[in-house]
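Q: Structure for this?
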Amino acid sequence: MTLFLEQLLNGLQFGVMLFLLAAGLTLIFGIMGVINLAHGSIYMVGAYAGTWVAMQTGSFFLGIPAALAAAALVGAAIEFLIVRRLYKRDHLDQVLATFALILIFNQVVTLLFGRQPLFVSIPPLLDGSVQLLPGLPYPVYRLAIIVVGLLIAVGLYLLINKTRIGMLVRAGSTNREMVRALGVDVRVLYTIVFGLGALLAGLAGMMAGPILAVQVGMGEQILITTFVVVVIGGVGSIRGAFVASLLLGVVDTMLRAYLPSMLRHVMVGPEADALGAGIASMGIYLLMALVLLIRPKGLFASNF
Amino acid sequence: MLRRTFLALAASAMAAFPALAQDPVKIGLITTLSGPGGYIGQDIRDAFQLAIDMEGGKLGGVPVDVKVEDDALKPGQGKQIAEKMLSNDGVKLFTGIVFSNVAGATVPDIVDAGAFYISPNAAPSNMAGKECNENYFVVSWQNDSLHESAGQLAQNLGYKTAFVLAPNYQAGKDAITGFKRYFKGEIVGETYTSLDQTDFAAEMAQIRAAKPEVVFQFHPGGLGIAFLRQYEQAGLLSTVPMVLAEPSMDAVTLKAIGDAAVGLNISSHWNADFDNAANKNFMEAWMKAYNRMPTYYASQSYDTALAIASALKATGGNMDDADAFRDAMRKADFESVRGKFKFGVNQHPIQDWYHLKVEKGEDGKPVIKTVGDVFKDHGDAYADQCKM
Amino acid sequence: MDNSIKKQILLAVVAVLLLALPFIASATGYPAMTSLATRALIYGIAAASLNLVLGYGGMVSFGHAAFFGLGGYVVGILYQHYTQDDLFLGLVPGTNQLLVTLPVTLIVCGAAAALIGALSLRTGGVQFIMITLAFAQMLFFLFVSLKTYGGDDGLIIRRTNELFGLKMRDKQTYYYVCLAITAVFFFLLWRLVNSRFGNVLTGLRQNARRMAALGLPAYRYKLVAFIISGMGAGLAGCLMANFLRFASPDMVHWTKSGELMVMVVLGGVGTLFGPLIGAAAYIVLESVLASWTEYWQLGLGFILLFVVLYTNGGIEALFGRLLGRRV
């Protein structure tokens, strides 16, 4: 039972990380109608900038503002220089341009930081683990990620439902043309949304730093999963992204943890393990296909 | 006076003439330089170049011209580069490939075209057995040996139960097979991770629940860094010891893990602290040139360059006589940084394997120390299937 | 001069150049050019197939690597059973004859496209992009976990499939085989896009509602286009596996779908020969840049970015403007 609880927490933590990325992506998708493959690169930029500063200064917490600033700046620059020209183009041009950005970012990061992965350790404050229940120790750092993620979810909820910016965002994701017709300066709104999305991606990258290896290509690994979250949740819906992130995080973790041992009841060990691992990797895509077949616009579709 | 000068000039011109006439031997170095595995290809390229620089642009007294290209970890790309170098540039000697899948696609083309491939790293099992080739040499090891030695090490250390993990691909499955070939205790858990997986929290929980005496895992490059850090963060490193093969604990990984790695047991065929002249020479030149700790990939690539140098020296750099070059290669007449070295019948190494341990160094930073032996003159399990 | 005559002259010149290419290659001392051209032709078929749904039909499929890879694996799996002399799933014997593997590829990929298309076409827009990706990824992980067929390491095909006793191993011979298949393929494609079917497909992209009002079953038309497109990509995969003598999950990876899309956009969306030009440009760029510098991806990135932002319709459109043709 404690094992199950621990896996549930793991799933939750993975889900929260996905949410940080998916929130920005779904807004960019929903409001501007842009497919941004470079979102994973911004995650990587945040991780590199934050980790590098943390390594130079020896303080993890100094790394956080660096990661946020770098990611937001890069995000705003991408919007201003490139994506802005693509709003009126079709999805294909957007895919191609942001695919080109992935290549460029990977090489620039290689040139700046070299090919060896960077690393930063967990700050002493968050190191070690706590006994949540008897027999269930859990790393403090992962708990912190869950808390931060949930706080940001609440913050985003308030931002979108209680502020003027949020109102424009909501209006924008429902009817883009109408917002423009009402005389709102959509250009500024777009840059803000893009920057905000990039900021969250950068934060995710920084938080991932002490757990994963900070390396070139780390963005692409998580990018596709994030897209799956966005589509399952419904494009443009923060609420959908939140639910889908947690769902996907838990499903993925549970499949990996329990599927091989379940298969082992019906077939021989090694083959069950290999097949189980294969099916577990397929799991999230299977889930997405199922959701889309039942609800073609995702779980929480806005009118977009 | 003038006449004498003229004669001297003519004589020196005559002496210089053969060297001028000799075209440099072209060597194609196809390796992985982009993506998460890029640091491995970088060490392989740098070590190979180091050996050439130490001889002033030559190998075995023969000038060489190295062409480096990035395969981006794509088998098709590797093949295309090899083909281009073979037909456009007339390259007859290749090396450099990091990953087994790229080697599997590229090497058959190279040897079928009558050229040589000298592997500084990957050595999949089929090419050590049934599909061995007289133009294919491996200077590093056969893939399984890495993990066989880890299995023997776990056995030597007296562990009775083990939990094993590896990514769900051929090299990962081979790793677990190799480990189990020499570990006689009970396997209480066997888990395959995904190749693009970076979060191993679910696996950590499974390990804790299974309570093994030892954990063996094979996760090369960035995966291994993530795995070990999360293993430590889950509080497992202090309770369940780990036995590793060298791909999961190279110099880069150690730097990433830091103090937490102290106490880890590793099986390897080379270590930076080896006390032989060739290795000291290599370490000194490497640190001077690059100022970072070399990974074992670098040592293998350096040995590859030395092996090629020995054969070029014996043949005077004549790559047209393939038989002569092959015979010279087989002798393995070079001073390896790992000490003893010779080729088996399938032209894969027969060498010693060692027990390494991570300890605190004099400056407080963790270092990998050599503490004992695992195997003596260890070949591979596939040599018998090789008919050459 | 009349535009259509200009076009015909251009086509004839290109055809002669393509026929003479292996001789030019060996005469100029770059024999590897033949292989490069073979790859460009094969990718050209795949990209043109994708373009049928993407450019003409307006269905942005991000999963065409599924069919490309499936085609490759058909060749690989049949060859493995041929050498081991046993039966696939205990039923089907293996083979090394291109005249068998090619039709089998078309049937398998057509069936797969029918299944994936039937489900995916229930969605549209961004959801269509993602669901096609999802199916391709499922296939990717399936091949990765199939240990019998090499898993992640891929499947080595020691000898190219046989065809009429030709020396298929010879690079020039294989080039001409691919050139012939490419010519037939593009002829059929040309007939298709200029047929009633092609017109309906284009109409569906431009105005689905009007087509529905005309009483045309949009779903069925789109599905048939998707199936044909999947078969074309499978054909390319079959040729590629024979060319590389290797099939691997790499052929099914999502980045391969992305590359095919890049080729289409690079060359020109919704044009007959655009994808072929795009494929050739991409292959040549990749190869040339990689031999110049190990940071070749940087150069490629900037070139792609330039094409998207400034050419307005890809290389085909650039050519068109140079020829004074209105596009």
